[in-house]
Amino acid sequence: MPSEWAFVSVDMEITNVCNVQCRICPRDAITRPGGMMSNETFRVISEKLIREGSLITFSGMGDPLSHPKVFEWIQHIRESGGDVGIVVNPASLNGNAPYALVDARPNSITLSFPSIRKIVFEKLCPQISFDQAIERARELINLCAGNVGIRITGIRTEMNPDENESYLLLWKKLGVPSSMVACHGRGGNLKAPGIYKQRDYGQKTGCCGLIRYHTFITWEGDVLACCHDLSGETIVGNLIESEICEIADRKRKLMRDGVSFKVCMQCDEPLRNVNPPVEGFPPANRNDRKTFFRRMRLKNSTMAK
Questions:
Q1: Cβ neighbours of residue 6 under 8 Å, at least 6 residues apart?
Q2: Residues near 28 by Cβ (< 8 Å), separated by ≥ 6?
Q3: Backbone phi, then psi, for 25, in 5-degree steps?
Q4: Phi, psi of 181 (to 5 degrees)
């Protein structure tokens, strides 16, 4: 299992291309290059992460299901002894995609389903109707049963601040774990009046749990200090050129010196205030890792209320 806290959980952005125009995604603010990860970049990076024992999650600023190699790469990681999850949107679960996804056997699937209130959902996700999204969610849940772990995540916005209880109840009835977190500003990049209002979590960023416990890798192999960096200004290194221990050392130095990136100064991400452990080693096995991140999700959800 991981020797470095920063590589316990890794978000791998296999693409930052997305055709789903969600209102809670600041795609218009992206200025770093757009594209899709090459097979060679994936091969080099995935080998290092599998050796390290990282939980790899296909996520980021793009739609991972739009990458033509996504199912092949999930299978490769699993067959190589690695752990891989993926974050998907109902709008992308069309055609054969749900079947191919489950057949690839990721360790887990996270379905982003912002709200179970029709008017709110269709405001946040204008490219798919609520009824169609629910139908696709049910189909995916049925396909996953006994095959792949699945959880549902929702977003509390100014439109649905009191939805948490009913949201959890619906998915519980369908036999699926779920959670809701407060919408945040993605490092100051999200501008959505009537949906999101920025909160102030203070300017101190030295204890940022997002930087401490996660590593974000772009489709080009660059490691950014944070997934909310849409310009690429916080680059820590490139995982094709550098080893995991080198990048982990750079991230630790960032934490010691105090993070001063512009994106950090505008951030109201709840995880920034999750304090690192005083001592100890990263989770030693899959069960310990699940316990660790379950506690983090609970703390994140509590802090975001």
A1: 211, 212, 213, 214, 215, 247, 248, 251, 252
A2: none
A3: -120, 120
A4: -130, 160
Q: Which bin fits 186, alpha (ψ -120 to 50), beta or left (φ > 0)? A: left
Calpha distance 4→249 (Å, rounded): 9
> Measured on CA atoms in the order 228, 70, 52, 9, is the torsion positive or negative?
positive
User: Is pLDDT of 268 > 90?
Assistant: no
Distance CA 2, CA 151 (A): 24
Residues in contact with 52: Cβ distance below 8 Å, sequence separation at least 6, in sequence order: 2, 3, 4, 7, 244
- Residue owning tokens 């290092």: 48
* Token pair listed for 13: 């952005």
Burial pattern 162-197, b for ≥16 Cβ within 10 A else e, equals: ebbeebbebbeeeebebbbbbbbbbbbbbebeebbe
Nearest to 141 by CA among 203, 90, 180, 85: 90
User: pLDDT for 140-192, tens place per residue?
Assistant: 999 999 999 999 999 999 999 999 999 999 999 999 999 999 899 988 899 99
- Give per-residue pLDDT as tens, 277-305: 545 678 877 778 777 777 766 665 555 45
Q: Which two tokens stand for residue 259?
A: 């993070």
Task: Tell which residue, 227, 215, 219, has the closest CA to residue 40.
Answer: 219
Alpha carbons 60 and 98: distance in angstroms, whole number: 20
Helix 39-52 and helix 244-257, axial crossing angle in degrees, nearest 10 = 80
The set of residues, in sequence order, having a beta carbon less than 8 Å from that of 105 and lying 6+ positions away, is: 74, 75, 78, 147, 148
- CA-to-CA distance for 187 and 193, rounded, in angstroms? 16
Alpha carbon distance 43, 172 (integer Å): 38
Task: Note whether 105 and 147 are within 8 A (CB).
Answer: yes
Alpha-carbon dihedral angle through residues 222, 223, 225, 230, given to the nearest 10 degrees: 30
